[in-house]
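On clarity, I found the account of how folds are encoded harder to follow than it need be. Since the whole study asks how a given chain folds, the encoding of that fold should be made plain. For illustration, here is how one protein appears when written out as sequence plus structure tokens:

:::
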Amino acid sequence: MLIIPVKEGENIERALKKFKKKFERTGTMRALRARQHYVKPCVARREAMKKAIYKNTLQLED
């Protein structure tokens, strides 16, 4: 549960911005989207390897 302390007289938009930033940092939405569909462990490993290879090739090009 996220708790955002709001000071007396603080703008509600500022508090909402703090909430959104904190919510994004927790990774809640990312986890929920990942759980929508089951991904077999071998497929997850394969995707991770492909991503690592892609990042490595980008790093070598610089």
